[in-house]
Design a protein that fits this description.
The protein is mostly beta strands and 183 residues long. The protein has one helix at residues 14-31; strands spanning 2-10, 39-57, 60-78, 84-91, 95-96, 100-108, 114-120, 128-135, 141-148, 155-165, 168-169, 173-181. A hairpin with a 7-residue loop joins strand 7 (114-120) and strand 8.
Length: 183
């Protein structure tokens, strides 16, 4: 005769929490992300299987009991996501020399965090036409900043945009074209 008993249960044991902490440390070392991740989920499943086998041989009865415990810990870490540039435009288009160009940039951020949005003069974003700061929303927030064009500037000029939050960047997006005409 064979009897089996199986029991599944979720545990919150200090040993398993240490495993979750190690996973978080590995995440920080691999990504360089020192902020608290948006989501950390640790699931520990312990499965215990007990088997009892009875063998009867005259004149003795033998009972064998074996127990196997299997523990599985899964840690899922979802890091803080960088902001995303949704769109960029400028108006008026074209803009006249000596006038003001208004740049409109839509930015989304899953965690609705504070960002700095920059309109850059080059692909490395080492020079800026303008920048603006504010809080974002997951589905997008419109930002605007202005640049007063010098009276001598005329032609087509490329610009790039980026959004930064606490060390994370959308990356530099572009080029877009700013067209400047004479009065």
């Amino acid at each position: 005769m064979k009897y089996s008993y199986r029991k599944n249960q979720q545990k919150s044991n200090p040993i398993y929490l240490i495993g979750a902490a190690l996973a978080l440390i590995a995440y920080v070392l691999l990504t360089g992300d020192t902020q608290t991740p948006a989501t950390t989920t640790t699931t520990t499943l312990e499965t215990t299987t007990t088997s009892i086998t009875t063998t009867t041989t005259t004149p003795t009865t033998t009972i064998e009991i074996s127990t196997t415990t299997t523990t599985s810990t899964t840690t899922t870490i979802t890091g803080n996501q960088p902001p995303q540039i949704i769109s960029a435009s400028q108006k008026p288009n074209p803009v006249k020399v000596g006038k003001t160009a208004t740049f409109n940039i839509a930015v989304a951020d899953a965690e609705s965090e504070f960002v700095t949005v920059s309109v850059c003069k080059n692909a490395n974003c080492t020079g800026r036409y303008c920048s603006v700061q504010g809080n974002t929303k997951p589905n997008g927030t419109a930002f605007s900043c202005t640049y007063d064009l010098p009276i001598t500037t005329k032609g087509s000029f490329d610009y790039w945009v980026k959004a930064d939050e606490a060390g994370r960047s959308s990356g530099i997006i572009g080029p877009f074209t700013l067209n400047v005409t004479s009065l």
